Amino acid sequence: MRILVTGAKGQLGFDVVNETKRRGHIVRGVDVEEMDVTDREAVRRVIGGFSPDAVIHCAAWTAVDAAEEQKNAGLVEDINTNGTAYIAEACKAVGAKIMYISTDYVFDGTGEAPWQPDCKAYRPLSVYGKTKLGGELAVKNTLDNFFIVRIAWVFGAHGNNFVKTMLKLGETHSSLRVVNDQIGTPTYTFDLARLLADMIETEKYGYYHATNEGGYISWADFAREIFLQAKKNVTVVPVTTAEYGLSKALRPLNSRLDKNKLIENGFLPLPDWKDALKRYLKQTERENGAD
To answer: Among 14, 20, 78, 101, which is least packed, fewest CB within 10 Å?
Structure first.
C-alpha cells in the first residue's frame, strides 16, 4: 500500500511513518516544508503526485492555549479546518482512503459518562476544539468513507508532552500543583501508531476513539505515576482547574472516551497506560544516554 503521512516530524506522525514502513508499505512522510496544508494547490500537487492509497493526517495546530490568541486564530483555522478540507479533496481526487486524527476537545466535557465515538453532540469549548471539529466535518462532507480517530492526552518520544513537562519541572521543584478534575486516559504514540496501521489496512470505516487501556484517571494521577516510575521524589498537590487558573483555553473536564467500537470491529486495544509509560521512559532513557 502507498501511504502518505502528514505531520511526519510530530510525535505521532514520526511513529506512524516508522510503523507503516516496518510493515513494508511504501510510505512518504511530509511536514510543512514538503507540503504546507494551508496551501490548497500544494496539497493537490503533492498528493496527486504521490498518488497514495491512503493518507493518515496527523498534522495539526495542537498548542491549545496559543490557539486562543487573536493573532493565531486565522492560522489555527487554516491548518486544522481548511487544511484538512484540502487534504480530503485531494484524497477524493485520487481515490485514497483518509484517516483524520481528531480529539476529545470536540466535546464540551460535561457529565461523567464516556463519550461514544458516534456521538454527534459536539460543543467544543476552545478554538482548538472548534477547528478540529471543523476538520472532522470537512472530511465527513467530502468523502463517503473515512476514518476519524479521536485521541487524548498524547505522549511520545518525538515532541513536547505532559510527561516531559513533569520530569523537567521535577528537576527544580519538590512539589507541583496538578489538575485533578479533568479525567481521561493517556495515549502513547508508539502504541497508537500500531493501531492506526492496523486500521488503515482495512475498510472498517467510521468514527473511533483510541487511547491506552487502564481506566480513567486525572492529570494528578498521571503525574504521580510519572514520578513514581521515574523514581523522583516530587509531591503532587491536586487542584481544581479553577484553582490552577493558568490556562487560556477552556478544557473538557470529562475526556473519557469509549473505545468498545475498536473491539467490536476486531482491532486490538492499546496496552495499559502504566505499561506504556514504563516503555516510554525506558525509550527516552536509552535515547538520552546515546546523546
So the answer is: 78
Candidates 86, 105, 128, 207; catalytic one:
128
User: Minimal CA–CA distance to 64: which of 134, 131, 133, 128?
Assistant: 128
Per-residue pLDDT tens listing for the chain (291 residues):
999 999 999 999 999 999 999 999 999 999 999 999 999 999 999 999 999 999 999 999 888 889 888 888 899 999 999 999 999 999 999 999 999 999 999 999 999 999 999 999 999 999 999 999 999 999 999 999 999 999 999 999 888 899 999 999 999 999 999 999 999 999 999 999 999 999 999 999 999 999 999 999 999 999 999 999 999 999 999 999 988 877 788 898 999 999 999 999 999 999 999 999 999 999 887 776 644
Is residue 216 part of the annotated active site? The answer reads no
**Using only C-alpha atoms, what is the Rg of the chain?**
19
The β-bridge partners of 209 are 150
